[in-house]
Amino acid sequence: MSDIYIIYAREDRLIAKEIYGLLSEPWDTWWDDYIVGPYNPTIEEEIQKTSCVVALFTEISRDKDTVLAELELARRYKKPIIPIQLGKSEPTYPYNINSKIDLQDWKGEADHPEVLLLKIKISTKVAPNKKPRRLSAIANDRIPLPTFFPSVSSHETQLIPSDAVAALRIFEAPNILVSAYDLDKSRAPEEMLKELTEYRDSGGFVLIDSGYYEAFRLKDKSWNADSLKEVLSHAPHDWAFCFDGVDETGSRPDPALAVEQIINAVERDSLFTSAPVIPIVHALKLEQGERELYSIQRIVREVAVKLNPPLIGIPERDLGFGLIERAKTVLAIRQELSQLPFYQPIHILGTGNPWTIPVLAAAGADTFDGLEWCRMVVDRASDRLHHFQHFDLFINQIGMVESPVARVYLENEGITFSTKAVFHNLDYYDSFIREMRKYFNEDNIEAFLVYKMGQTARQFMQKVPGLCE
């Protein structure tokens, strides 16, 4: 007995195989490649026993007798049918009146919005029996996972925003996060906009943050959703976080209302950009200003189901106090999301510490951003952060530098102290993330933690059961 039976035309076998691969991760899926011996009795028996039918409609299959015969069997046995449109032709009558999945522009991406919708539709008929597999990349494979977004901000960093973007462009960082606050026209961002345009033209991926972090730190109460709207209308970007300022008002009395507010924020901000808008989830505030952590996993799950976003952002400060509690919270969120029929990537906002990133990634987070690369300096030998002005202590680590671009800047006597420190950091973070990704993709997460943290990693795993699983 199968969870899903795939109906397709023999001419569409290759694409049917791709869809079979996607659906067989969370469900027991059947297609006629399994048949050995007579076809007709086997097909009728399998359709009769299945819980749900997925029918692939192309210009060829929509009028093919064998496909129509299988569909008629599914109707006779009252099996729910979910049609998928793969070509320009609509599904044939009466299946065109069903709510279809439109995969006309699908290129095989596991995180395609309509693929996620297909899985959600199937899950309403039959629950997944396996947890979804961790994705290796998102954004049409432009962002390999796990990854780090170097952040750019005017608040308490060693570089002005335009110079920070220029450094990231020269270094050829694959993706960056910039604050909408620094792109507001009142702050004369012309040079920064020019650098962002050049960065994107060279293949870089730009994620715009809401700007609420800077506004909150600077006590600028004038910054609001309309401010973000104005920035989205003129600043180059690939994705954008929604405006999440509602969190600090204490206006979220329950999880259901929190979910509603997040959805409304994403829908509101999506009106002003053609790019995907990423939701941000905060832990609910208690009267004393502390965060209530028990409902955040439920909120994240509901947002994932209702929006199917490419990412869900969660500020690190909202995960609890201390790295142990924060790792436990991320693990609880990932366990909740593992009940869904698709993998939902998680982004942790404000996390740039080389020990924090792999711990929270081991717990289930996927992407991170942080200002440490332009605020502090890293000791490559210990993977620990130090005061920016202590770069003198680590300048002899040039032999560990991998990027030819960074090496040129570090070896040039005419380059300023701050610039050398920044390129030292950029090369470190790039090497660190690529190495971490290799261990994660080989399902060897525990080894990476021990490699970077030593015995501390083993003690940590004892205090966070389920880490690295």
CATH superfamily placement of the largest domain: Queuine tRNA-ribosyltransferase-like
Largest sheet entry: 8 strands, parallel
User: What's the helix count?
Assistant: 16
**Main sheet strand line-up:** 12-11-10-9-8-17-16-15
- How many domains comprise the coordinates? 2
Q: Give the low-pLDDT segments.
A: none
Q: In CATH terms, what is the fold-level topology of the largest domain?
A: TIM Barrel
Mean pLDDT: 90
Estimated share of beta-strand residues? 5-15%
Under CATH at level 1, the class of the largest domain stands as Alpha Beta
What portion of residues is helical?
Answer: 25-40%
Termini gap: 30 Å
Q: Quick one: how many beta strands?
A: 19
Structural class: alpha/beta
Cα-based radius of gyration, to the nearest Å: 25 Å
Q: What would you call the shape?
A: elongated
**CATH architect. name of the largest domain:** Alpha-Beta Barrel
